[in-house]
Write a structure and sequence with these properties.
Elements lengths: L1 H60 L4 H24 L4 H24 L8 H30 L4 H6 L6 H20 L12 H4 L6 H11 L7 E6 L5 E8 L2 E8 L5 E7 L9 H14 L5 E8 L3 E10 L2 E3 L4 E6 L5 E5 L1 H6 L27 E7 L3 E12 L2 E8 L5 E6 L2
Parallel strand pairs: 7-10
Antiparallel strand pairs: 1-2, 2-3, 3-4, 4-9, 5-6, 6-7, 6-8, 8-9, 10-11, 11-12, 12-13
Length: 425
C-alpha cells in the first residue's frame, strides 16, 4: 500500500514538473516575443526620427530669421533625443551605435548653439547653412541605411538580432563633417547668448446650412458615383462633421461615401478595385479631377499640388480668391490612370475651414524680401496657410530646392517673418 502511494506521489510530481516546465517555456516565449516586438518598434521609430532630423536640418539651412531657426532647432533636438532613446533600446549595435549617438548629439548641440547665436533675430550665414546641409546629407544617408536594414528584416533576409549588429557606422567623411561642425559649434558657443494639417476655426460654412434627412443625403451620395452604384446606409458619424455613411458594390469594386448631415455636402469617397495599364495622361487626369470636384459642389478651385502614385494620381485643389490661394480649404481628388475614373476624394479641409475672408493688400512686397538667393522670387504667390492652434496666416509662398529636395517657403506678407518651410519630397 505504501509503495502504491509513493508511486502515485511520484507520478503527480512528474506531472507537476512537466506542467511547470511547460508554463516556463510558454512564459519564456512570450517574453522573447515581447522583447522582439519592443526592439522592432524601437528600430522603426529610430528610422522615423532620423528622417525628422534630416528634414529639420534642411529647414534650419533655409532659415532667414531666428523665429524659423529656433523652431527648426527645437525639432532637431527633440528628434535627436528620441532617436538616442530608440538606440538604447536595442540589445547591441557596437561601434555603429556609438557613432550614431555622437552624430545625434552633434546635430542637437550645433542647432542649439546656432539658435542662441541668432537670438537677435538674424538668420543663418551662408557658412552655417552649408554646415546644416552637410549634416542633413549624412542624416539622409543614415536614414537610407536604416530603411535598407528594416526592409531586409521585413522580407526575412535578416533577423532582428543581425539587424542590430548591422547598425551602420559612419566613415571618415562624416567624422570630418562632425569635426568641422564642432569647430563651428565652439565659435558659436562663445559668441552666442507645415500632408497633412487639419486646422479648424469652427465649421462656419456648415453651421449656416440646415439639417439634411437620410433620403436627401443618399441621393447626393449616389450622384457622387454618377448614379451607377446602388448604395445603402451603413453608418453615421458624430465628429467635427456629423455625417451619413453609405456603401455599395459594382463591377467588383466596393464604394463608401460620406455626406454631411448639414447641407448634404460630399465629405469623402473611397473605392477598391484592381487597376489596369495606364492609358490616361496626367494632364487629362487633372482635367477630370477638377471637373468632378465642380460637379459635386466644389467650384472655383485651383490645383496646388499633385502626387503620382503609379496607377492613380491625387490632386490637391484650393479656392483662389483675388489671386490668393486658400490652403486651409483643401479638396483632394484621386483619378485612375487606366480609365480616368475618380476613385476617391476628400473635402474635410474645405468643409471645416471655408468661409469669407477679408484680406488687405500685403504690407510687404515679394520683391523686397531678402532671401539670400535661396528662394525663387519670380514665382512667388500670395496664400493663406493654416497654423498651429487653429489659426491662419497671410503669406508669400516661394518655391525652391536644396540638397536635391523641392520646398515651399512661407514668408509673412505683413511682417516679412519666415513662418514655415514645406518639403515636397
Amino acid at each position: 500500500m505504501q509503495r502504491k502511494s509513493t508511486a502515485v506521489i511520484l507520478s503527480l510530481l512528474l506531472v507537476l514538473t512537466a506542467a511547470f516546465s511547460a508554463v516556463q517555456t510558454v512564459n519564456a516565449k512570450k517574453l522573447e516575443r515581447k522583447m522582439n516586438s519592443d526592439q522592432s518598434r524601437s528600430f522603426y521609430e529610430l528610422t522615423e526620427n532620423v528622417e525628422k532630423i534630416d528634414t529639420a536640418l534642411l529647414k534650419a539651412a533655409l532659415s532667414l530669421d531666428s523665429h524659423s531657426l529656433i523652431k527648426s532647432a527645437s525639432e532637431i533636438r527633440a528628434a535627436s533625443a528620441f532617436a538616442i532613446s530608440d538606440l538604447s533600446e536595442l540589445a547591441s549595435g557596437g561601434e555603429g551605435r556609438g557613432k550614431i549617438t555622437e552624430f545625434l548629439n552633434l546635430a542637437a548641440d550645433y542647432s542649439k548653439a546656432s539658435a542662441l547665436l541668432h537670438s537677435d533675430g538674424s538668420g543663418v550665414t551662408d557658412g552655417e547653412s552649408k554646415t546644416f546641409t552637410e549634416l542633413s546629407r549624412h542624416a539622409s544617408e543614415l536614414k537610407a541605411s536604416l530603411e535598407d536594414i528594416r526592409a531586409k528584416v521585413s522580407s526575412g533576409q535578416m533577423t532582428l538580432s543581425e539587424a542590430e549588429k548591422a547598425v551602420p557606422s559612419f566613415d571618415g567623411a562624416i567624422e570630418k563633417a562632425g569635426t568641422d561642425a564642432l569647430s563651428d559649434f565652439g565659435k558659436l558657443s562663445y559668441r552666442g547668448p507645415f500632408s497633412e494639417h487639419e486646422n479648424t476655426l469652427g465649421t462656419v460654412m456648415l453651421d449656416s446650412l440646415g439639417e439634411t434627412d437620410e433620403k436627401t443625403a443618399l441621393k447626393k451620395a449616389m450622384e457622387c458615383l454618377g448614379g451607377r452604384v446602388v448604395l445603402v446606409k451603413t453608418g453615421e458619424t458624430d465628429g467635427l462633421i456629423a455625417s451619413y455613411v453609405f456603401s455599395g458594390d459594382a463591377a467588383n469594386t466596393h464604394y463608401s461615401v460620406e455626406i454631411s448631415k448639414r447641407g448634404a455636402m460630399p465629405l469623402s469617397m473611397t473605392s477598391s478595385r484592381v487597376f489596369g495599364d495606364a492609358k490616361i495622361t496626367e494632364s487629362e487626369c487633372a482635367s477630370i479631377a477638377k471637373e468632378y470636384a465642380a460637379s459635386i459642389g466644389y467650384k472655383n478651385l485651383s490645383e496646388t499640388y499633385r502626387t503620382d502614385e503609379g496607377q492613380t494620381v491625387t490632386f490637391n485643389f484650393a479656392p483662389e480668391e483675388g489671386g490668393v490661394i486658400m490652403y486651409p480649404d483643401l479638396v483632394k481628388v484621386q483619378v485612375a490612370k487606366d480609365t480616368g475614373s475618380v476613385t476617391g476624394f476628400s473635402a474635410d479641409g474645405y468643409l471645416l475651414n471655408h468661409r469669407e475672408r477679408n484680406l488687405s493688400e500685403p504690407a510687404v512686397d515679394a520683391g523686397d524680401i531678402d532671401s539670400g538667393g535661396r528662394f525663387d522670387k519670380k514665382n512667388a504667390r500670395l496664400c493663406v496657410i493654416p497654423t498651429e492652434y487653429s489659426g491662419e496666416m497671410y503669406c508669400w509662398e516661394f518655391p525652391g530646392s536644396i540638397g536635391g529636395r523641392s520646398f515651399y517657403a512661407y514668408i509673412n506678407a505683413d511682417t516679412a517673418r519666415q513662418e514655415e518651410i514645406l518639403f515636397l519630397n
